[in-house]
Amino acid sequence: xxxxxxxxxxxxxxxxxxxxxxxxxxxxxxxxxxxxxxxxxxxxxxxxxxxxxxxxxxxxxxxxxxxxxxxxxxxxxxxxxxxxxxxxxxxxxxxxxxxxxxxxxxxxxxxxxxxxxxxxxxxxxxxxxxxxxxxxxxxxxxxxxxxxxxxxxxxxxxxxxxxxxxxxxxxxxxxxxxxxxxxxxxxxxxxxxxxxxxxxxxxxxxxxxxxxxxxxxxxxxxxxxxxxxxxxxxxxxxxxxxxxxxxxxxxxxxxxxxxxxxxxxxxxxxxxxxxxxxxxxxxxxxxx
Length: 288
Hints:
Oligomer: single chain
Number of strands: 7
Shape: globular
Number of helices: 12
Structural class: alpha/beta
Largest sheet: 5 strands, mixed
């Protein structure tokens, strides 16, 4: 975590810094969120090895974007295999500290998060992560067909309208449904929540399709975890993840199309990425 600055540090100084970081983390866990607003959030459960324990650490992470486009670390918590109960505990605590329901949450379909968010913030929209979904579908096709299958799925993912995306889903089902029904079922069962992004500004689509907002900064955390061959304890692993992400967020880029985030929070309707006029208004929608 300290890089070159660690040279010459004594064990006493390292212990002092670790204690300071733990104090920061405990304050982070208790801070009020009443003055914060997050329009979109990205969630994931990230696993680490713990040298002195048998079970791996599952770190529950949430990153949000504020109305000005600034991305911000919201939560880094210890969870149990990404279970719904673990996520409910996290979400209820965030709500107790004043966090408003986000408009959209983005995450992997395997997360217990979705059951939790329906309980705590039932109006929050679901957007499933396309990166994980692509892998899950392609795993159900033979390797020789995977490049072709991936191209067909990209026609869904990068369609310009929801109708075109639905047509691409149908084409995929026709081509692969007879011999590879599991691949088709994996796509069709989550089609609605894979296409949620069409109801939001086109400028935001690339951010909403995947959980790269978390995956990219967590690459640094994973690298440090490999270098240290795993944290010595669950507490130290959680602290390492928090501190590295906290340091990294100063370099995170603002969301593209940040000026549209207040409109999303205000409930302005978007259809296939294009802003619609308010009911009764004669204002023409902006060009896509």
